[in-house]
């Protein structure tokens, strides 16, 4: 490469928007690309069905770093992701290749782009109080507290994600600053300071089209295979419902079925609703994303052509 600032490509989009297909198509056209997954569930080796993980055949032909990266006997944190991704970016550049970051975990992308903060450590006493409040009054009560403390943070956190709600309240109350202010303070350097960022997004012009894709895919993701996977996970790891992977969409609802808390006939409906809400939050992130070049669901070829122009400008292809 002839660049002083080496490139990194982002490809972000809501669930079921076709990110994996686009990434594979780009890799077929531009040999220098190497894919790094930006997904908080595919990172776990045992989460295959409910995460819509690419097949083994696809992963063999088109390796995705940070897919099947760790087992469920550990928790892969945001900080773990940041450290792993930065090491991979450096390694890929050393081999004169280009990192293509692909996924839908918007918080991961945001931390990659803006840097990671030196956030306050966990407060066991406060955490215990918040967990007791959930036990006594339900998660909705704690989410309402977060909404009052920091409405913007609440908009970007699932109302049933107890781990993230607790952590957000912990950070806000211990520092007296909003979550965004905390994330912006004392951060590692922004990615653009060191690299040239090329940022693409798949953004549906018509939400109904995305909903059609979500519903069609959901029929494959939830069913007996998902339930079997969750039973096996429980048998091997004796995993808690509080593990981040088990709080992810599809796994949360599937675990409720396995534990007898949700009727199996409601699994599709509940997981479909949660997935649509998740996609809505992903799109909200994307609307506020600076320098994002967006394309509609069907514009894969146009996006590839734009990427080629960008790489040409950087004298790479």
TrEMBL record:
UniProt enzyme class: transferase
Keyword ATP-binding annotated: yes
Function: Catalyzes the transfer of a dimethylallyl group onto the adenine at position 37 in tRNAs that read codons beginning with uridine, leading to the formation of N6-(dimethylallyl)adenosine (i(6)A).
EC number: 2.5.1.75
GO molecular function, one term: tRNA dimethylallyltransferase activity
Residue segments, region Interaction with substrate tRNA: 39-42, 163-167
Pfam families with a match to the protein in the record: IPPT
Domain of life: Bacteria
Keyword annotations from UniProtKB, A to Z: ATP-binding, Magnesium, Nucleotide-binding, Transferase, tRNA processing
Binding site residues for substrate: 15-20
Protein name as it appears in the record: tRNA dimethylallyltransferase
One GO term (biological process): tRNA modification
Annotated InterPro entries: Dimethylallyltransferase (IPR039657), IPT (IPR018022), P-loop_NTPase (IPR027417)
